[in-house]
Amino acid sequence: MPANLDPDAALMLRVRQGDAAAFTLLVDKYKQPVINLAYRTLRDQTEAEDLAQNVFLQVYKSADRYKATAKFTTWLFTITRNLCLNEIRRRTRHPAESLDQTWNESEDQPMHQVEDKAAASPPEQLLQGELEEKIMEAISSLPENQRTALLLCRQEDLSYDDMAEILDCSLSATKSLIHRARETLKSKLKPYLQTGAWKQEK
Predict the structure, then answer these.
(1) How many CB atoms lie within 10 A of CB 50?
(2) What is the DSSP letter of 97?
(3) Between 20 and 30 A from 27 (CA), which of 9, 37, 101, 189?
(4) Positive or negative CA dihedral for 112, 117, 120, 125?
């Protein structure tokens, strides 16, 4: 085994050899990041958790074919992105199961952001939650490639090269997607931040 092998890839090679403990370590480490990416894409906590289970099921089933030719996270988030796209396509075919129900289902803060709630007063918590909702609404309106590129940026251990591989595009195209996504978000959120009024562009 190469000395400079990605530690997570090394764990995955152990999974390939039937090491259940190694698989558990990978699930424990990456379950929440996978849920985060799925939630930000689908805006449904239950579906994000279900999709994460499917991601790791696919990881386990693919173990015998796994080759450590790239970072484990690149492979993992590629699987996650593909399953998210499948879910989006399914929703397109079945529009009655829409995204619009998400924000009416629960008043709880979504799991994708860890906050020091003890440090915030109730009004501040309310404003934080409202702003997060508007950010998520703006992100969800982005074209799929821009949205995924922006969400992948929030995964701290992914380089631009990793993101380009997940998105299946060039490095320059990846940087362009991220730049365009950020500029679009700024333009969508600016009126809200200035006035508190939310106006989605058509």
Answers:
(1) 16
(2) S
(3) 101
(4) positive
Q: State how far the Cα of 200 lies from the Cα of 202, in Å rounded to an integer.
A: 6
Confidence of residue 117 (pLDDT cuts 50, 70, 90): very low
Instruction: Supply 33's token pair.
Output: 């990041």
CATH of domain 120-197: 1.10.10.10
| Angle, CA of 121, 125 and 128, to the nearest 5° | 135
Q: What CATH topology corresponds to 1-94?
A: Rna Polymerase Sigma Factor; Chain: A (1.10.1740)
- Other CB atoms within 10 A of residue 199 CB: 9
> In angstroms, rounded to a whole number, what is the distance separating the alpha carbons of residues 184 and 188?
6
Distance in angstroms (rounded) separating the CA atoms of residues 192 and 144: 23
Those residues whose C-beta lies under 8 Å from the C-beta of residue 2, and which sit 6 or more positions away, are none
* Assigned token pair, 177: 């997607």
Domain boundaries, the chain: 1-94, 120-197
Per DSSP, the residues of 31-52 read: HHHHHHHHHHHH--HHHHHHHH
The residue behind tokens 């099921």 is: 57
**In the chain, pLDDT over 90 holds for what percent of residues?**
38
Tokens coding 165: 């591989």
Task: Tell the residue number behind the tokens 């796994």, with chain if given.
Answer: 66
Could you identify the residue written with the tokens 């990456």? 30
